[in-house]
């Protein structure tokens, strides 16, 4: 993959992308409040405060938007020299999580009293993108060889995905490997090499599912959720009920019934169900359209980037958001097995929102430096 040197234009950020991001964040904050208010109001754990999750998500949004604006003004090429340091920090954080107690059988969070919680896997997925962008931009025609163009990325991505998988987070580990394949394909790797890697990733995913009982149960419940409607199939059935009761126009903002202890933690991975119930098919189409616009602008930025480094960064960042959005919506609509992938910018989660906005800052920065 090679780009010729052309005249570079320093200009304004991609306004369409910026506006799309802001709308997604706004929709997310409103829907987090709507989906979580009932649970928070009736729970002593949340101080019976219906705005508990709204406040936390709002704080994360403000910090994230400030960070995004800072990164927009910070030349993305300067990140290249910090990539090794970021990789080391990510590994340390991924290991530190094991010092903290498990939550529902998974160890994904670093929770220090008085400080915001951190989910290192959110850093890991973008760390892999940064590494691949830096390495591939220096690789030249070697990218077409398996030894130099595929194996290093398979090993590094596999290492980070393995650490994330050890935290009992198969979903984000899968996102890391899928995005790795997307970047390799876009970088000019041979199709035979990509096919081989895809087969390895697929076999790894199958093994990680079949060998772990609860993941196997999720797969079976996806095929027929009504076979076990009180346990493994419960969440998906409740999602169907939410989407179905929403109809075309929805029941109205704040008027969801499924958020009232039917869908567990409706402000998290299944928030799209609440959108479907309250805002209807029209609301779902609106949200899907926003993600399609974001993906379109991300691809456009990648094509117009002034160098290979910027192109790979744009592809990777856009890929992370696209893959997560597709998986989340597919899960909620029963198109694939239930897995814990949040809907970017919309699902509750301070770490995810913060690092997604920082990544968007990098993407917007790339949009400022385009070829004429």
Automatic annotation (TrEMBL):
Location(s), subcellular: Cell membrane
Name used for this protein in its record: Probable peptidoglycan glycosyltransferase FtsW
Can you tell me which family this protein belongs to?
Answer: Belongs to the SEDS family. FtsW subfamily.
InterPro entries linked: FtsW, FtsW/RodA, SpoVE
**Lineage, opening ranks:** Bacteria, Bacillati, Bacillota, Clostridia, Eubacteriales
Recorded E.C. number(s)? Answer: 2.4.99.28
Mode of membrane association? Multi-pass membrane protein
**Reaction equation(s) it catalyzes:** [GlcNAc-(1->4)-Mur2Ac(oyl-L-Ala-gamma-D-Glu-L-Lys-D-Ala-D-Ala)](n)-di-trans,octa-cis-undecaprenyl diphosphate + beta-D-GlcNAc-(1->4)-Mur2Ac(oyl-L-Ala-gamma-D-Glu-L-Lys-D-Ala-D-Ala)-di-trans,octa-cis-undecaprenyl diphosphate = [GlcNAc-(1->4)-Mur2Ac(oyl-L-Ala-gamma-D-Glu-L-Lys-D-Ala-D-Ala)](n+1)-di-trans,octa-cis-undecaprenyl diphosphate + di-trans,octa-cis-undecaprenyl diphosphate + H(+)
Q: In which pathway does it act?
A: Cell wall biogenesis; peptidoglycan biosynthesis
Which UniProt keywords are present, listed alphabetically? Answer: Cell cycle, Cell division, Cell membrane, Cell shape, Cell wall biogenesis/degradation, Glycosyltransferase, Membrane, Peptidoglycan synthesis, Transferase, Transmembrane, Transmembrane helix
Role of this protein: Peptidoglycan polymerase that is essential for cell division.
Segments spanning the bilayer are 12-33, 53-72, 84-102, 145-163, 170-188, 194-212, 233-250, 270-296, 308-333, 345-366
Q: Which Pfam families match?
A: FTSW_RODA_SPOVE
Entry keyword annotation includes Cell membrane: yes
Q: Does the keyword Cell cycle apply?
A: yes
Q: Origin, by domain of life?
A: Bacteria
């Amino acid at each position: 993959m090679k780009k010729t040197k052309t005249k570079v234009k320093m200009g304004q950020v991609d306004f369409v992308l910026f506006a799309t991001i802001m709308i997604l964040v706004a929709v997310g904050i409103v829907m987090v409040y709507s989906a979580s208010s009932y649970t928070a109001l009736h729970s002593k754990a949340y101080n019976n405060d219906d705005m508990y999750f709204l406040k936390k998500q709002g704080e994360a949004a403000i910090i994230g938007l400030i960070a995004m604006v800072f990164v927009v003004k910070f030349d993305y090429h300067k990140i290249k020299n910090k990539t090794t340091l970021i990789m080391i920090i990510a590994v340390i954080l991924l290991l530190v999580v094991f010092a903290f107690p498990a939550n529902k059988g998974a160890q994904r969070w670093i929770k220090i009293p008085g400080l915001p919680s951190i989910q290192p896997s959110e850093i890991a997925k973008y760390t892999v993108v940064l590494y691949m962008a830096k390495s591939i931009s220096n690789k030249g025609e070697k990218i077409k060889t398996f030894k130099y163009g595929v194996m290093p990325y398979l090993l590094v991505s596999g290492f980070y995905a393995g650490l994330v998988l050890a935290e009992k987070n198969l979903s984000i580990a899968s996102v890391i490997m899928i995005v790795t394949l997307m970047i390799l394909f876009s970088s000019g790797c041979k199709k035979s090499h990509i096919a081989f890697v895809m087969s390895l990733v697929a076999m790894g995913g199958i093994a990680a599912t079949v060998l772990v009982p609860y993941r196997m149960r999720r797969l079976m419940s996806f095929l027929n959720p009504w076979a076990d409607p009180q346990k493994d199939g419960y969440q998906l059935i409740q999602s169907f009920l939410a989407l179905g009761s929403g109809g075309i126009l929805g029941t109205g903002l704040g008027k969801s019934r499924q958020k009232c202890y039917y869908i567990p933690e409706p402000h998290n991975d299944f928030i799209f169900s609440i959108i479907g119930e309250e805002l209807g098919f029209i609301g779902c189409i609106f949200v899907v359209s926003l993600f399609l616009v974001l993906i379109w602008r991300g691809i456009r930025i990648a094509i117009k980037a002034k160098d290979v480094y910027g192109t790979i960064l744009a592809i990777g960042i856009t890929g992370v958001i696209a893959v997560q959005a597709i998986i989340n919506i597919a899960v909620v609509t029963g198109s694939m097995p239930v897995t814990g992938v949040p809907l970017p910018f919309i699902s509750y989660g301070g770490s995810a929102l913060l690092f997604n906005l920082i990544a968007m800052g990098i993407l917007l920065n790339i949009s400022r430096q385009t070829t004429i």
